[in-house]
Fold each of these.
Amino acid sequence: MSKYASRSTLPHCLLHWAETSPNAIYMTQPLQGDQLLEVTWGQARDEVLRMANHLKSLGLPAGTSIGLLGRNSAHWILADLAIWFAGHVTVPLYPTLNGETAAYILEHSESKLLMLGKMDGTADGWKDIEPALPADMPIISLPLSPRKDTPHWNDIIAKTEPIAEDDIQLPATGALATIVYTSGSTGRPKGVMHSFGTMCSVAAGLRDTYNVTRDERMLSYLPLAHVAERAVVETASLYFGFSIYFADKLETFQRDLQRAQPTIFFSVPRLWTKFYLAINDKLPPKKQKILFNIPILSGIIKRKILTQLGLDKTRMAITAAAPLPPNILQWYRGLGLELLEVYGMSENFGYSHGTRIGEARIGYVGHANPGVHHRIAENGEVQVKSPGQMLGYFKDPAKTAEDMTDDGYLKTGDRGELDEQGRLRITGRVKELFKTSKGKYVAPVPVEQKLNVHPKVEVICVTGPSQPQPFALFMLSLDAVAELEKGSLTKEQLTQEFKDLLSSVNESLEDHERLDYIVVVKDQWTIENGFLTPTMKIKRNIIEDKYLTNADTWCARRERVIWE
């Protein structure tokens, strides 16, 4: 039996699998062209211990913060592990950050070194980040890094011996492992501190609730700088010893997904919606309805759709970060893919609530995970006490105290309700409620969910504080923009469709919630320009700062659909 079989921390996990399955492939990374880099558990251990030995040779004080910037790659995870084996703390940075925020995080976290990985010069913020880096910040480049003038991972491990077995120092479960800076919708990002124990808490929940095993395969493409991907992909793969594959870029995503053939697929509503709309373009819903009602043929068609998506081997599909429209959830479940909604926060390492197989209820994010306690406060706020609970906010004890109750519950900021079985439904944000000029409060999220069914609309924001009635901002999908430019779609067509959608949704709303009009915005809201978080949630305050100054003018026009 492996002496690291306890797998109490992620470094223990790496050593356990390297000892018991050294030749099994852990990670598969696309390179240029059709080349693939395959990393076995034994190779992972060797490279990590060599880099860790190099980091130790730099003489940094124990527990030094080290920045880790880059897109998902095999060496992102190896670098994370090397930082820990060297006795330091990882500070992950999103590759889409602007330069000012990246510089702030490095300065606030007191990072003394940056490990720089894969970056996309066009999609990422590297051109903005690079000049904002401290001039004296040492950099180590990982494979696929944009910098060629710094010490490089491959060169370092080629000339550095691994830490000897007897000299390996493994961390305590309560020791600080990482400082995760929240993407945040307002103000400066906060540094959420997590221990090795809180990071591993998610693995126990997956084991006990979803029967995750060594035989799983996952595709890594959502940002590893966020706790969701770090928990479900990095932590789970290290704990259970299953294989992970990496997506190269947007253009190759479908091919990367087909290569991975994931048994567990984790995504966000925006991508689930894109998949759904892409299938509808090829096989219109009316035709689907006919085919899905034909015995035998129905099963063949549904299996073909899942195969085309690359999800025919998927036994468990997870959606998180925001609500998915009920009709889309039902569509996937009709295909035989039970989409499981889950809920969590950076502050509890994503370990909070999850829908259990066979116990799904549309609109609910499921039961509290094993070991999690929850309650609804008097103001409707969801409060959670989780094994994944953070150690606190870095250098901000006042904010830590503000976000925790006296008896140790995290104030999530989300409003919610529980059904008779204890399943949780998120009904909006405590602070997102806004008051119209008529003195009525409106919760925007449920209204946005009702609107989020049009195939040409990518993102929606319902707003209208101090206005007579709320209104909606629509950002068109890139496909819709391209069709308008080509003339295969007209503004008149979309205007009528949006009018119909508005009428339909308003019929289901209370009088004070009914939307006055829709505004089709001309700009794209992206992660890069700050309108979306890295998990593609809207930054409501940023959007409102830009558009609310026009609300009086729009209201006075008395039009149902307005093109900005």
Amino acid sequence: MELNKRRIILSACLAICIIFLGTACKKTPQESEEQPLSRSSEILKEVADDYWNFMLEESIYLRIKFGLKIEELPDITFPYAKYQTAFAQSILDKLKEIKIEELSHEESITFEILKWDSRNSVESLKFYSLYIPVTPYASPIQMAHRIFTTFEFKEKGDCGHYLNLLKKYPLFIESIQTKLEEQFRKSIIVPREELDLVIPFLSLFIKEGSQSQFYVKDERLEVIDDPDRNEFQQDLVRVINSEVKPALENLVKFIKADYRKKAPDAVGLWQYPEGREYYKYLVRVNTTLELSPEEIHEIGLEHVKKDNAKLDEIRKTIGFKGTLDEFRHFLKTDSRFFPKTPEEIGDTFTSHMNAMSKKIDSFFLRKPKAPYGVKRLDPELEGSMTFGYYQAPTISEPKGYYLYNGSNLNERSLVWAEGLIYHELAPGHHFHIALQYENEALPEFRRENSHNAYTEGWAEYASWLGKEMGLYQDSYSLCGRYMMDMFLSTRLVVDTGMNYLEWPRSRAVKFMKAHLLESATQIHSESLRYSTDIPAQALGYKLGSIKMFELRDKVERALGDKFDIRKFHDAILGSGSMPIPILERHIDWFIEKELASSKK
């Protein structure tokens, strides 16, 4: 149920909104031949070209994806945040010259997305001091490490480039410590219980020489001659031991000292200066909706009640004689629902994917070309992540994967494996992300764009679609699907509760234990994720899926017997990710087009 890792990291970073912006706004050859571009279209193309070039230069994720040379590690300093914000403001200034009535429908979507994301980016600067860069999901450390783990050696000169990047790593870690020190002076400190995850997370990377993840083993250096390879590896050991390792040790030492002593027991953004305003900003960015935390909290409570009623119906259908709470306990503890090996988890996911593949053509006009599959998450990361995440195809790895957590098998219930894999791969994340990237009719910007409520809302809608496809034949799998939905509904309650309504984490944990199948360990890490790691990110799942179903209902009512589920899905996926209000306008346009077509 987790996001692609880079989306999780970037949704928490204050630069989230500009990481995905920028594009060339292309016309199709037919459009170019039939009519000249309007002045507004020309301006939009210029703006979008500038933005795309900026993003391609600045985004480490994009440079890794396209196999471009990387010269710098992530920059989390305030001057760099100002630099990014100034660029976003320049985009807004240029967009003012455009008359939207002169744009085509697709151009207007490009215009609105650029304006939406740029405004959020500009606003983010005032909350710079509230972004904490060491929590497992939100930390830029993982993106920095990916630079080294995906680095390809094609010639001798690559060894020198890798070494130069590694020598910059201690400064990167020092910049993180500097920010923590600045926040410490403002009493913006990671809550005490989150530090129990942060310290082991950072300590994972404190290893000597050839045991370090920064060390490059022989199999990655096959194109390098033996003498040069040996010299390079010796240099690596020296830099790792004398520079990299000490920098990480100093960071952990700082956190363990006065920082930890003064860490608050309370969780949530409400306790920090401007914390509530920051949370409302994150709510808007992650949901793309104008809903208050109080409204979202009530929506969550309403849907928890509905999910409980549905689960109770299934309990009765199965013939379970105990109460609903006893049924939940049965689902959480009975050995039949738990894997014996990590491989069994992967095999179960694969089996469900094979069943889904037989149904796809009846519900979709297009399928992604990129293959997909499952494999286990790096075991070293499993302790700091509750579940796993979807990893999109890249140049170096053209296959999309769901990386599943294979640890603590007694906590890995397979009850919701079916619903989870439909969410993560097909027709969920892999479908919308791979189709978006492969759609050459879209400008580059929109091929790379990502909005939390759209991506997670679609994935949840797609998971429910399995029921309509005739899957979920096992009643317990259907239980799992409703329990997934319950999981998302509770997020609306506890995320807003802890970050805005001053709930202690103990209250959130109690609420989650009363309604979910997750183990105490999973609830422990999830409640910290919502309250201290990436607040508001988890709101996009349920709220986004509610909107997806509302849009489908609207289209069905408008088109009646002309409704085609395949065309509706193509309308949702065909123009890529966008904020929900823009998607709503796009679907209105789709309805008008379909009605006009039916009258011909």
Amino acid sequence: MKKILLFLILIINLVWAVDIAMTQTPVDSENNITLKEKPFGYNLFKGHFANIKQFIYNPHYRINIGDKISIVFWGAFENQLVVEVDNQGNIFIPKVGVIHVLGLEASKLNIVIQNAVKKVFKNNVFVYANVLNYQPVNVFVTGNVNYPGLYQGLSSDSIIQFLDKAKGINLKNGSFRKIYVKRNGKIIRSYDLYNFLLGGNLQMMEFKNGDIIYVDSLKYYIYVTGDVKRAYRFELLYPEITLQKFKKYALPNETATSVIVKHWDKNGKLITKKYSINDNPFIFNGDEVNFISEHNAKQITIKLDGAIKGSHTLIVKKGTSLKEVLNELNYSPFANKNAIQLYRKSIAKLQKQLIDAQLKDLEQKVLTSSSVTTAGATIKKEEAELILNFIKRARQIQPKGRVVLNKDTNLSNVILEEGDTIYVPKKSSIVTIQGEVKIPGAQTYVPKYTLEDYINSVGGFTNRADKEHVLIIRQSGKVITYDDTAFFKKHIKIKKGDSILVLGKPSSENLQITKDITQILYQIAISAGVVLRLF
């Protein structure tokens, strides 16, 4: 009997333990907050760079006594030295003399030294100067941080480094968006760390002894869960925001179709509403926003564009083929049915990922490329800046996700997806020539004209033209590559509505970088229909 009783007690305890485990809110033990409370940017402050002394270039830093300055000469006179700012605010450069630099902004240092050097060396002497270290300062960090106090750093340190020294922002009560720097009782700079977290933008400033960094309290926020890339608590600057603006924070996945919003009114009553992912209601402080994917939906929405009559939005059953839709379209008399195009979001996403991966690889190669000589390093630096600017512009290109429909394709096997766009182009008698030609533009179609005739009609190639990679894009989206430098040139018949794209030819001492840029230019031209100039 005792054994049975003990067994029953054990079962009851196990059931009770399971019940408690299932009803407790999941907790992030490391930060002592519930998973629901975990704010966007929670992992920014982990002490990884609190003690790093990195002399970050600050153009507004003012030269101080004791600063060390590196100076490099090359050309007709070559020398390299490090000088220190003396007690009178001067530096001494052999053969040049004394230069007063105290209080000078770092961005103007090079110009001042260059002007002094030119008074002595009239021609063919070049100079580069840079501040090697910045002054140590003591800064107070207070407000909603984990360990308020006085912390030592460099005047060039970023605000994130000082916050990290204080073990970061209090995740329950601290604001990531309302951080202030005070000097002599007045706010001289405010910071919103979402600018850094979302866009990589961070204002630099010169800290001084006695500055105070104050982290304000969290006031407005919204909880996010579900089918998103960022399921966090997001801080708002105002008590309300529209759903479409808020989506830029949460980043819903492509599969998300609906939004469920839980809102508590003034009387504490819970109100739950459901919206389409494309609706734009206001959501308010304290709301819980859950993005969901309704995979069981029986219908999908297709967009129609181009030479068709009637509605440009079509709702069809899941599993509908492209052929079924094309058979039901009301075409315009000017429609070119032989050049119908399909644009798909998932394909555009894959194209974007491919281009971004190639750009990232190119960026790493550029940043790790080095040169032996000082003059070579200068050229490398200029070339790197041009290529990095090209990478920045290329990342802004959005591929179209075009699916080429070959004439032999069985369109019954092409099943439409949510968000597909079917484009029916108009019949055209125009040929467009774009890219590295002297006068890009459109030309009327002439049956006997060859590709060379069309190129000559717009003034011919520019000096930067990549004649080995001339692209002919048919109205259907089909792409043909033409090599104008080949000994035996293949004959390509230009058709009505064709686009001729002449890519630019990158020039770099690094053959691999040249090859990578050429491939990226090609991918952008194919996926986005854009000829992007390198320089």
Amino acid sequence: MPRAASSLAAVPHHAPGIAVSLKHVPAGRVFSGTIEPAFRVAIHDLREQMARLPEQPGVYIYYNAKGETLYVGKARSLRDRTRSYLGAYGMSPRHDALLDEASRIEVIVTDSVVEALALENNLIKQRAPKYNILLRDDKNYPYLQLTTTEPFPRVLVARSVERDGNVYAGPFLPAKFARRTMGLTHKVFGIRSCNEVITGHRHRPCLEFDIKRCLAPCVAAICSTERYATAVADTKLFLEGRNQELAAQLRNRMLTASEGQRYEEAAQLRDAMRTVEAVRERQQKMASVELGDRDAFGVKVGASGAVVHIFTVRGGRVIERVEFVWDASESGESEAHVLEAAIQQFYADQPPPPEIHVPLGVTEQQVLEEWLSQRAERKVRIVLPQRGTKKGMMELAHRNASLAYRTRFDAHATANYEALELLQAALRLPKLPRRIDCFDISTIQGAETVGSMVVCEEGRMRPSEYRKFKIQPGQQANDLSGQQHERFLDDFAAMEQVVRRRYSKVLENGGPFPDLIVIDGGKGQLSSAYTALETVGLSNLVAIGLAKKEELVFTRDRNEPLGLDPHGPALRLLQRIRDEAHRCAITFHRQSRKQRDLQSELDVVPGIGLRRRKTLLTAFGSVSGVRRATREELARVVGARAADAVIAHFAANP
């Protein structure tokens, strides 16, 4: 919270019988310590006592019978502000609950309302009162983490910035930009994506090296430690946005390699340089000099709480997005009060920009501007944009706040988050499984074997992300009619094939990578899935198997299956995802069988199209009838040339 802007001077009280205790707060120091009881009175006798309070600025504090701080507020006039609570009784559930629980009130007089604002923020931060608006920062937007603490660093998606010695870049809004940028680090610089322990003694590199997405530091003869360190340094410049400096370095190294007749290396550096320059040009186009340095606030208040969305613009570019959330059912607070609290709390520990754009006026705009100006040591204005780019940015922040409110406080979304949190705890996942991929195989005795993949994001199914797979066959067998059909009888190999094909494509596109993979099956299917992940260098992904009958969860780290609460939301979520994957696989399998059954052996005869096929089947009754027909009989129906083609086909396929 903000610090006190200046000292609080002790002044004598003016109301007889009321002892107002003041504390000296040095400038620049956070208020701490206990407050001497100043005004103790039962809540039902407040009216008479409030009438004798001084008409001076200051801070008032409500306590309950246990001595716990319920609410801290500031006022231009302590007498008028505290008396307004009694007149407003019955108009706000939150204020009514405060007055019903409060047992005493204390006041602290200050020299100005700006000092009262600073002291109010310090007390709120120190005591976290029950009825104050306490917004919490929601770090759901992704960052990219360059794991420089590892001998051979990787680029990973992170949901928060930690002080762990690694390099972080972001946040990325929307999240797909993070995956695209991570994909560029693989494609342009060859940063590894696997989680193997790199010793340099591997016999041969994995598929990532073959498709030119990794330098293969696992094989020392291919990539030395120095070469990989250079790639890491380039990646660091790229993630930090120092693209002009990076492009210049790549150009110099390209010219050096060309002069040394290392033309393949020079070509790789040339391609990398062009990619970096293209990214830099796109970033420049997205910037707007008109925006300058400013912050744009959007706010949405509803029956379940409030969400505040902030776009931080520096140098004409949106460099960060921050989201504050207040969970307070039936609070009765207005958007103006929530916005005022958000401004105070957001700039408590960071300097404000010259302009702050808000969607509506705040009640204490002049006081807030004065306090912000003192913190920034320059003029700070709170502005309501009316037109142009500035208004567009503010409206975008407001739309994001509305969307975040619907997502967070929707009843189904709340239940989904609870299920994800329980699932994370039960499986000991490193982060919340926001994206879950689920695979299933469908077949009948190996015929028309197909696979399906469904996606669940934030607890909701994403049909646009579903994928279907036709299994590449392994052998042939005759059906009852004597027709040959290719069959795939190995369910484990089918699962391995589907997972490998899926994540080879994901690697090629640079994402999206799931937080959890669910395999419909037991230990065998799970092992096949991990075999596929290791083949493409993604064994760091977490996969589980969900058996159908016992509904047990199989993991790679446990010998025994895990039994989740059969009535709990975590297992119900897994079952819902698994059942959706099974439904998609069954539907695709039925479609494949139907298409096969509708096919005729005449379809593969050259020169026989749909019209002639129908003519032949009508004339001879069936494919067997066509096979028994003579050339003269066939020629009378479809002509001599087509008759010769039919005779030749059946002669080659007796």
